[in-house]
Specification:
elongated; Tetracycline Repressor, domain 2
């Protein structure tokens, strides 16, 4: 668990089990309740952990959301690293398609993560850790595409950062319009990213 946001690191097994219950309860609440309405009292009732105990680990609901969000982003990144890619530019379309599919599949199976990073959560101070993830994802994507000169960051910006934002913006639009990522927007995200990268990789 990150301690950079005012969160106490649980040392004992019992404490870790309580924190896990808090995080799982919060995830369940996010799937059913607008973020602005989630309170420590609701999390306490759902998790069975007393409010005073929750405050021993988390100073606020916001802190819980950030820890849960970081967990989601780490899981997504781990999913990406397990994708078998050639690591060459000549297979870049297949690589980008696989990465976009992995992202969409993760968000589709984790509605709370979808809400936090593609829906209302973007308004709740989560962009800092989301930005950190974007940078990790950018470097991973660059490596998986072969790391050639056409996709390196330069004075005009980072083309891989642009590619990532194109994909995320497209699937976010689906979430805002339909509350989920539809197959149509999955396909459009893949096409949009590949169209942009095609101007660089041919």
């Amino acid at each position: 668990m990150s301690t950079g946001i005012g969160v106490r690191q649980p040392a004992q097994a019992r404490s870790r089990e309580r924190v896990e219950r808090i995080l799982l309860a919060t995830e369940a609440l996010i799937e059913q309740t607008p973020l602005d309405e989630i309170s420590v009292a609701m999390i306490s009732e759902r998790s069975g952990v007393k409010r005073a105990t929750i405050y021993q680990f988390f100073p606020s609901v916001q802190a819980i959301l950030k820890v849960l969000g970081q967990r989601f982003l780490d899981e997504i990144y781990d999913d990406f690293t397990r994708i078998e890619t050639p690591g060459t530019q000549d297979a870049w379309r297949r690589t980008t398609g696989a990465l976009i599919d992995a992202m969409v599949d993760f968000y589709s199976h984790h509605p709370a993560a979808c809400s936090l990073f593609l829906g209302d959560g973007s308004l709740h101070g989560l962009r800092l850790i989301d930005h950190d993830f974007d940078q990790r994802y950018v470097e991973l994507l660059r490596a998986q595409l072969g790391g050639g000169p056409a996709i390196q960051a330069g004075a005009q910006g980072d083309p891989m950062q642009v590619a990532v934002m194109i994909g995320i913006s497209t699937i976010s639009l689906s979430v805002h319009r339909f509350g989920r990522i539809t197959d149509y927007y999955r396909t459009q995200a893949r096409r949009a990213v590949q169209a942009y990268l095609g101007t660089l990789l041919g």
